[in-house]
Write a structure and sequence with these properties.
With about 150 residues, this protein is α/β, with parallel strands linked by helices. It has five helices and six strands, in the order ββαβααβαβαβ. The radius of gyration is 15 Å and the shape is globular.
Length: about 150
Amino acid sequence: MPAAVAVARILRPHSIPMTDDRVTIFIPLKHFHEGYLRQAVESVFSQTRADWRLLLLVHREHETLFRELLPSALADERVTLVAREGRNLAGAYNTAMRAAETEFIAPLLGDDLLAPETVEVLGESIGTHPDADFFHAGRYFVDGERRRISSDY
């Protein structure tokens, strides 16, 4: 299903280097289905704008597994695999905020998809509302062919 994207500005000292990319999408990986995970990652690569970064947050003991599962994604310089100790979602957010080199972060669960224009619409929203620190989009369910089968919520 396309994800309900909640995007937050990272508030931190100016001394941390930033890239010109718009947003870091992070996928916290604890429990996952390989097929859904591949589709989630593909949905990031299918964005109509390319100014994004992707963090794959994995438990340290699974680092090798994910390197083997997603070699082509990890070959892209915008993608980083981050091995971490914490397993809860709050810890994943904290890890993403520390590792991100963009002004905004957005979570994407490993069984969700981003609509192709998500980063483009986010960029337009940030340009229209430069003082906003948080953006949120709706979600809807799709079937196996990615056809919409529910209304927005």
